[in-house]
Specification:
By secondary structure, the chain is an alpha+beta fold. Helix content is 24%, strand content 32%. Strands 11-12-1-13 form a four-stranded antiparallel beta sheet. The protein has a four-stranded antiparallel beta sheet with strand order 6-7-10-8. The chain has a three-stranded mixed beta sheet with strand order 2-5-9.
Length: 173
């Protein structure tokens, strides 16, 4: 029992530490346009079935297996160097039209620890969001040092669908 509580506590501490004091969830007040850096919740990590080339940085992933270690409702999640969105988010993005990313299938599983910490957790279907756009120009882009940058209209959509644990800050080129 103590190992389960310890694992859950370590994850919560990691979430709390991942949010700098100057960053606030949601977009900052008085921002009507532009681009934003977003650090999605890290709900898990790379699984053993992932195929990646570590000879380059960031690694090139050709098959993604994401192992969820704890999920609290965010419609976009991450693990370096990948992002996933719920299938509902994929549909909403496709309906509005967007630039700078494509979708691919991903294998998503739940870790044993997560099953113990969140019994009965039912995940929505997640898809791999493969970002290939230019930060500050496309709706999705990557800025150095590997930060996801999104347009305001994408931020508005994600906020409407739910990103309670994401950290969002203005992006200045």
């Amino acid at each position: 029992m103590f190992s389960v509580l310890g694992a859950a506590l370590r994850r919560w501490i990691a979430v709390l530490r991942s949010k700098p004091d100057e960053a606030t969830p949601g977009h900052p007040p008085n921002e009507s346009a532009g681009y934003f850096k977003i650090r999605p919740n890290v709900a898990g990590g790379i699984g053993e079935n992932t195929v990646l080339d570590r000879s380059v940085h960031p690694p090139i992933v050709s098959r993604l297996h994401y192992v969820v270690e704890g999920w609290f409702g965010d419609v976009i999640v991450a693990t370096f160097p990948c992002f996933l969105v719920t299938q509902e988010t994929q549909r909403a993005l496709q309906e509005m039209g967007f630039s700078g990313a494509t979708f691919a299938d991903a294998e998503v599983t739940i870790s044993e620890e997560c099953q113990e910490d969140q019994p009965g957790l039912e995940l929505p279907r997640f898809v791999w969001l493969k970002v290939n756009g230019k930060a500050g120009r496309d709706d999705f882009g990557i800025a150095i040092p590997f930060r996801l940058v999104i347009s305001k209209r994408i931020l508005d959509l994600l906020e409407s669908l739910g990103i309670p644990f994401a950290v969002v800050e203005p992006y200045e080129q």
